[in-house]
Design a protein that fits this description.
heterodimer, A: D-Maltodextrin-Binding Protein, domain 2, B: 455 residues, mainly alpha, elongated
Chain lengths: 321, 455
């Protein structure tokens, strides 16, 4: 295997994807990265949701996005350029956002297109992306270990997560909703007391269910496993973001979302490790550019709202790294 | 003699002896109750005081011992034959069970590979999947029909296989509509197979292997029993003849001599056959049967690893667990095969299988390197293309072919080697029975002739 620079080899080793099964070299190589992350953990209070001000506030971009290749050498963007590809954590089964199109075998969706925009800006080629498919629970650890540069996977921005990783500005607004059988008479989540509800581990959705102690929660690793359980009759309902559930409804004519207002507001951000805020600023620049040149609206129309276009959330800045 | 006991308990009286049997009718102390055993001995001794009676007893014992020899030799030889036959049967069952496992793993590898390629699954792959499922079902039915086959567990496995095919069909139906939930169905199918069918089969394989080992061990102790009976029979015959030689003018008693010869010859034949069978069984156990186990095990592990390769690629960057499993499986498979291939008696197929496994591992290394370096599409192509020299499937197919050939050759050898000893054992058993009974008759005639001379 060709080693392209020190970081590549680090990433490869950190991913543990050595062809020889060498666990020892793995730990030593990861050590420098995990040291920085331990400091972050030490600084964070443990349980209660921390106050981080406005959760959706991110770092302001340094002016407009520079031309491709015009990045200072010691930045994270320069590292990505020298590697030649963007390493991105995504979902492969979230219809409309990040899913593997079974007909083409390619990853597609709104989140994937966000990554194409970032890759185009940094590398000059929207397709120079190495995807890593992650479960919800794997997203933050993968960023912290340096396995991926960026996560685009319907990820909600909140203060707990800000303590572990950084977020771009909000790029989409979703809300937690509940999916039931089409013939269900339930109107709100409270009508589902005592019923089984499937949710993904490591999601904000499953945390929200703590407010409904009478619901029997069935946790799974991958939210698409929820749809399998739902179709097999093992669970009565699924909770997830309305964006994800819309994808489920599209795959199952016998499912519907509750009509009650969303349980929560879920602002989506692109996740980035805490070690390189300059990349967060850069990505925020890309998001602004997408607003200016209409790319965001085009993608929204393509994937989500062909009839009634959404508006790109207005970026909020002011946070300091 | 003793004064009639008074009601007053005499302190001098022996404490232990109780009063109840009062000697109201005093009898002489000499006439105690007659001991039947002693009486018998006395009678036997009186009976044996004269020579004809002694001879008669020795004659009866010799005849009995010859019959005992016939029975024991017949039974031990037949028992050994049947335990080795059962070892053969269980060894064949091990191969059947392993073939169920490899068929299921092949089916799963094809299902996951078809998914990995995307689009409409190629007809070659779906055909391969159908063939594997059909052959797994056939092997399950076959194994369940085998006597002593653990039908209950196999029926359970059969149930899991039909649920598995249902889930795969569901995955395919979703795939065809472009629904990504198909992937989740496939994941569930794979997990079902790995959690509820393969461990059960693994358990049955271990059970059958233990039965083979037990059968081999059981056939070991039998020759000691035969030897003991043989020594006893010959000893009696010789003692009788020596006694006759001493007590009569004749040097030889033809009947007893014939009996001795018959016992010696059939005993030698029986022991010889038995030790031949034991040695053959030992060499089968440590040779061909050990090879069958090693090859079958290597095949199962390699097929399992092949699935892991696809699962690693499907997981796309988060499949480290599958890759770790791949490495440990292929290492174990290679260990089993190399031990065999490096042996002087390694067959060509075994050497080819070990080489092919090594080449496959090299292709896998390239696949991982491509994926790790960000060339996922290239890695998938290398892992899934059906033909093309050096593709993973092609190299793996040559491993499959060579190891299957090696497995068939070795298990045929186990079958024929063990069949080769059961027939001589049955024949030797028949010979011993006939010869032992003939010896009994000859001894009887010999002794009764001599007895007539006493009249």
């Amino acid at each position: 295997m060709t080693v392209r620079g020190r970081l590549t080899s680090l990433l490869v080793v950190a991913g543990g994807l050595l062809v020889a099964s060498g666990c020892t070299s793995n730990t030593t190589a990861v050590a420098p990265i995990s040291t920085t992350t331990t400091t972050v953990v030490a600084a964070s209070p443990a349980t209660t949701p921390p106050d981080c001000g406005n959760p959706v506030a991110s770092f302001a971009p340094d002016g407009p996005v520079p031309a491709v290749g015009d990045v200072s050498p010691d930045t994270f963007m320069a590292k990505i350029r020298s590697r030649g590809r963007l390493v991105a954590g995504v979902s492969a089964d979230t219809l409309l956002f990040g899913y593997r199109n079974p007909l083409t075998g390619k990853l597609e969706g709104f989140d994937i297109d966000m990554l194409h925009q970032v890759a185009k800006a940094v590398l000059g080629d929207p397709n120079r992306i190495q995807y890593k498919v992650l479960t919800y629970a794997q997203r933050i650890p993968a960023l912290r270990k340096g396995d991926v540069d960026i996560v685009a996977d319907v990820m909600t921005i909140n203060c707990t997560r800000w303590q572990q990783i950084d977020f771009s500005a909000e790029y989409f607004t979703a809300g937690q909703q509940v999916l039931v059988r089409k013939d269900s008479s339930a109107r709100t989540i409270n009508d589902l007391d005592g019923k089984k509800m499937c949710a993904a581990r490591g999601s904000t959705n499953i945390d929200e269910l703590k407010k409904y102690p009478r619901i029997v929660v069935v946790p799974v690793d991958d939210i698409s496993d929820c749809l399998v359980l739902f179709q097999q009759g093992s669970v009565d309902s699924i909770t997830g973001d309305n964006t994800v559930l819309a994808g489920f409804v599209a795959q199952d004519p016998y499912a519907k979302q509750l009509t009650a207002p969303a349980l929560t507001r879920e602002p989506y951000g692109l996740g980035i490790a805490k070690t390189h805020p300059e990349f967060v600023r850069y990505v925020n620049g890309v998001l602004e550019q997408m607003h200016t040149d209409g790319t965001w609206s085009r993608l929204d129309a393509r994937w989500l709202n062909p009839a009634t276009p959404d508006k790109q959330p207005t970026p909020v800045y002011g946070r300091q790294p | 003699m003793t004064p009639t006991p008074t009601v007053v308990p005499p302190p001098a009286a022996p404490p232990a002896t109780s009063l109840p049997p009062p000697p109201t009718t005093p009898t002489g102390p000499a006439v105690v109750r007659p001991d039947p055993l002693k009486q018998l001995f006395r009678r036997v001794a009186a009976y044996l005081a004269d020579s004809p009676s002694r001879l008669r007893v020795m004659g009866v014992l010799s005849v009995t011992m010859c019959v005992v020899f016939a029975v024991v030799a017949g039974i031990t030889l037949l028992t050994q034959s049947s335990t080795l036959a059962s070892a053969k049967g269980h060894a064949a069952q091990v191969v059947r069970l392993e073939s169920i496992r490899t068929s299921l793993l092949t089916a799963d590898a094809n299902a996951t590979n078809a998914f990995l390629v995307g689009g409409l699954e190629s007809s070659a792959v779906s055909k391969a999947y159908d063939t594997s499922i059909a052959s797994a079902s056939a092997s399950i039915a076959d194994a369940a029909a085998h006597e002593g086959g653990d039908a209950a567990v196999l029926h359970q496995v059969n149930g899991v296989v039909s649920r598995y095919t249902g889930l795969v069909a569901e995955a395919q139906a979703n795939n065809r509509q472009g629904f990504p939930v198909g992937a989740a169905y496939l994941r569930q199918a794979t997990a079902l197979l790995r959690n509820e069918a393969l461990p059960q089969l693994d358990y049955l394989v271990r059970l059958e292997q233990a039965r083979v080992t037990d059968a081999f061990a059981a056939s070991d102790g039998l020759s000691a029993l035969l030897r003991a009976v043989l020594v006893l029979a010959l000893g009696l015959l010789l003692v009788t003849q020596v006694w006759l030689f001493v007590h009569s003018r004749r040097t030889f008693n033809i009947g007893l001599l014939v009996a001795t010869l018959a016992v010696v010859v059939s005993g030698a034949v029986g022991l010889k056959t038995m030790s031949f069978a034991t040695h053959r069984a030992e060499s089968v156990q440590h040779g061909d049967y050990a090879a069958v186990t090693a090859i079958a095990d290597a095949r199962v592990k390699a097929f399992d690893a092949k699935s892991d390769e696809s699962l690693t690629l499907i997981a796309r960057g988060s499949g480290q667990a599958y890759e770790t499993s791949f490495q440990s499986l292929t290492t174990a498979a290679a260990y089993s095969l190399l031990g065999l291939a490096n042996h002087v008696h390694a067959s060509g197929a075994e050497i080819r299988a070990a080489d092919a496994l090594r080449s496959y591992h090299a292709v896998h290394t390239t696949i991982r390197a491509d994926d790790d370096a960000g060339y996922w599409d290239q890695a998938v192509r290398l892992a899934t293309e059906q033909s093309g020299a050096g593709s993973a499937n092609e190299v793996f197919a040559s491993f499959d072919e060579a190891s299957q050939q090696a497995l068939e050759a070795r298990s045929y050898q186990v079958h024929s080697d063990l069949s080769g000893v059961t027939t001589p054992l049955i024949a030797a058993s028949a010979v011993s029975v006939v010869a032992g009974l003939a010896a009994a008759i000859a001894a009887g005639i010999g002794v009764s002739r001599r007895l007539r001379e006493y009249r």
